[in-house]
Structure formats: C-alpha cells, structure tokens
C-alpha cells in the first residue's frame, strides 16, 4: 500500500490529460488524475452542469481509490474549488492526514463580474484567448470549438455556482499558488477564511496558466507533508 496518494482535479475545459506536464515530477508516490464526465476517458458520459453532482461524482472516484494514510488534493482554477469541497466532505469520513494545494483560484465568493458561461460564442472565444490555456487550433476551428464550447460552458457554470455557494471552514491545511498577473491575485489570502488549519500562499510571475512554467514548484508542494 502506498504511503501517500495525490489526487489531481483539472481546470475548466480540461480532462485527465491536463496534468501531463506535472506528473513526471511526482516521484515515489501514487498519483490519480481525476476527470469530470463528458470528455477524455469519459467522453461517452453526459456532461454534468450541477455543481453538487460534480462534487459527488468526484468523491465517488476518490472513494474507489482511497487507501493511503496520507492524501494530498490538488486542483487548478475550477479544480481548486472542487478540491476544497471534496476535502470538506472527506474530512467527515477519512481518518488519515490530508492536505490541500490550490492554484489559480482566490476562493469562494471571489468571482468574475460576468459569468463566462453566459457569454456569446464570439466573446467567449475572446476571453479564452486572453486567459490562455486553450490551443488556437481549437479556438480557430468552428467545428472543434463547437464541441469544446459545450464542455467549457458547462464547466464555467459549475465553477460560478461553486464559487457562489456558502461553505463552512475546513480543518485541512491549504497552500495556494497564483500568478501575479491573475485577475484576483490580490485576494489570494481569501482562502485563510476557509480553513482552521495552516494556510500559506505564494504569488509567482505569470498569468492564469502560470502552472505550465512551474511544474517542479507545484510538485514540490504536492510531495511535501508540510504546508
């Protein structure tokens, strides 16, 4: 049995392959890349646009795999909010030690002025270009974007509703990373309001998808037992 398990939760529009840049740096531990329905390995399953269903679906994936005495949950952007809510539920049933690492998200009730899932296709493409992370080959091809748009809109809706949902504090310690150029980077310490455990954060140069430039840094925090 592994001494530690790491569960990775992807960002909006992502899938189980979104952390291929990161997993080579996660040595000597058991890593599981989780996935929302309607994409990747789960392409034949319907998309879920209710955030509570998404949380429960993710919990089911973890419960089937959970076996180690130590667990780290990691999520970027939407995945960060999802990991937080998963931690809140797991605290009630998991007896081992748990740690939460979040990137690209300033926490509950820190939302965009406009809900991106309500934007026109043209405006959504513009926002995605600015945000980064979505290949131009998808944004420039109407056919490819038409398919991807269904996924990203569903995920943005889930993220918006999850960020706007009241949540009590968790006991799990939180470490948060954000890019210094992100829209809400100045509010990164908002996460301190949602844990009774240790909280630390770090701002690094870059925008929302700074993670691609810092795989070693992220891996370091995922592998460490400390926050």
Kindly describe this structure.
It contains six helices and six strands; from the N terminus they run ββαβαβαααββα. Helices cover about 35% and strands about 15% of the residues. Strand 3, helix 2 (about 80-90) and strand 4 form a beta-alpha-beta unit. It is α/β, with parallel strands linked by helices and about 230 residues long. It is globular. The model has no long low-confidence stretch (mean pLDDT about 95). It comes from Chitinophaga agri. This is Thioesterase. Belongs to the thioesterase family.
How would you sum up this structure in a few lines?
It comes from Chitinophaga agri. The chain contains six helices and six strands.
Key phrases:
227 residues; 6 strands; Rossmann fold; alpha/beta; 6 helices; six-stranded parallel β-sheet
Q: What order do the helices and strands come in, and which of them pair?
A:
Layout lengths: L3 E6 L20 E4 L17 H15 L4 E7 L1 H13 L6 E7 L17 H11 L4 H4 L2 H22 L10 E6 L19 E6 L10 H9 L4
Parallel strand pairs: 1-2, 1-3, 3-4, 4-5, 5-6
Oligomer: single chain
Q: What structural class do helix, strand and pairing data support? A: alpha/beta
Q: What is the C-alpha radius of gyration, as a whole number of Å?
A: 17 Å
**Which strands sit side by side, in order, in the main sheet?**
2-1-3-4-5-6
* Morphology: globular
Helix content: 25-40%
How much β-strand is present in the residues? 15-25%
Distance between the termini: 24 Å
Number of helices: 6
Instruction: Provide the succession of SSEs.
Output: EEHEHEHHHEEH
Which regions have little confidence, pLDDT < 50, spanning 5+ residues?
none
**Could you name the CATH topology?**
Rossmann fold
CATH superfamily: Alpha/Beta hydrolase fold, catalytic domain
């Amino acid at each position: 049995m592994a001494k530690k398990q790491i569960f990775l939760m992807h960002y909006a529009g992502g899938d189980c392959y979104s952390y291929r840049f990161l997993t080579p740096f996660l040595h000597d531990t058991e890593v599981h890349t989780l996935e929302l329905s309607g994409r990747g390995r789960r392409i034949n399953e319907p998309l879920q646009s209710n955030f509570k269903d998404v949380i429960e679906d993710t919990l089911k994936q973890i419960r089937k795999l959970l076996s180690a005495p130590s667990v780290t949950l990691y999520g970027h952007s939407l995945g960060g909010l999802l990991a937080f809510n998963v931690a809140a539920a797991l605290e009630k049933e998991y007896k081992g030690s748990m740690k939460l690492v979040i990137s690209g998200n300033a926490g509950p009730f820190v939302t965009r002025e406009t809900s991106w899932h309500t934007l026109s296709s043209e405006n959504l493409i513009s926002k995605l270009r600015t945000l980064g992370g979505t290949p131009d080959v998808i944004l420039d091809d109407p056919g490819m974007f038409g398919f991807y748009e269904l996924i990203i809109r569903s995920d943005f809706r889930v993220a918006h509703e999850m960020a706007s949902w009241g949540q009590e504090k968790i006991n799990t310690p939180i470490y948060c990373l954000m890019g210094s150029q992100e829209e809400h980077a100045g509010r990164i310490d908002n996460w301190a309001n949602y844990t009774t455990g240790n909280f630390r954060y770090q701002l690094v140069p870059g925008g929302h998808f700074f993670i691609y430039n810092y795989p070693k840094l992220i891996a370091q925090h995922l592998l460490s037992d400390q926050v």
